[in-house]
Protein: Superfamily II DNA/RNA helicase
Amino acid sequence: MHELFANRLVTIGFTKLTPIQEAVATPLAEGASIDALAPTGTGKTLAFTWPLLPNLQPGDGEQLLILAPSQELAMQSTRVIREWATLLDLKVLALTGGANVKRQIESLKKHPEIIVGTPGRVAELVHNGKLKLARLRTLLLDEADVLLREETADQIDGIWDAINDSEVQVALFGATEVDPTVAAGLFDREFERIDRRDVPMPTSITHEFWPTANDQRTKRLRQLASRKNFQAMIFFNTTKALKTTASYLAHEHVAMATLVSGDSSSTRAKSLENFRNGKAKFLLTTDVAARGLDIADLPAVVNFDLPRNGETYTHRAGRTGRMGKAGLVLTLGNDHDLRDLKRLVKVEIATTNGQEARRHDEPRESVQTTPRSATPDVKKKRLVSSVQAFDDAAAVVEAKPTPVKKVRPGVKKVEVVSRVDRFEKEKKAKRKHSKNKGKPKSHN
Structure:
């Protein structure tokens, strides 16, 4: 590791590298093309930042290109890398879709050594001749399993054609395995597999399942929103369900933000900012938008919709409990969902009604209810007590003397007619009217 990096680590109190950080350090520094795998939350961004940056030459143009599947992940990686790049006088530029392309082109004229971007925008700039990659030394794919699928794979293929240099190092990083034949065919090389997924990281993530009817899940979120010091990413399978829930929470005055792939980059950036600084209690998102996001000390993740597969559950759960810290994963659903979930993942999942998980510092409601587990004798006693209380209250009302209204002199006393008598008189009047209808009126 570079001396400046080592000194920085001592300053911030970083004492031990994670397994993936140790495993990839030498191969990356020596220029090997690798396929690195490690669980989410194990510091993969720093794992490739520390070995690669010291090999770059300040002022020598674009030498490192890092591709990410989303704007958010690209911007997140940019912030992390820039902190270390400044120590070596290296410039970092983010090229993401949705941002102002003219400003990006102007920034490219400064020839930053490190570029972090999304495949679509990078491919566009390469195709238009605005981004030159003749000096590139390393191409790195973050969340490679996502990038090497269909459309993005075609975009990366176009970028690789523009590079056209077998000497360029290619590195694949992710938590999910990439088909080796796809990667080998695209880049025309064999990759050294470095798999650290079987090395356990210290973690204290709790997995819970809350039995909840489909039409009650939004109310569950409202219940969670009342907790103090609680924040969570809420995962949905569809944007439609996300927006419906967002409308409900907005009506309930719950502070929340949404992260949807169709929104503008500025809107998405603002949502993340509000969530990170605590202004938003919930961040409602889908798997596509939130892949690889790192929210420091995130207390919980909530599966509003059951993940479609075990891999998705793993990536969602990886947003909390990062780097060995405590975290909570809540899944909402019915009995059928619980059975499916147990087939998808191999973790211990506690089933709870949500009350046991209530924080100790929360006030409980003062209304007492009869628990379902109460014995028949206990229920009978409570019922008798309730009836007795009702009878006592009725007796008190009966015992009260009926107030007598005083009538002022000269004022005619008005006879009080009960509601039943009044209705009976009205009915009789209607029948009489109906009987006499059509008869000539008497003029006596």
The CA atoms of residues 204 and 375 lie 38 Å apart. DSSP finds 17 helices and 14 strands in the chain. The chain has two domains: 3-195, 204-351.
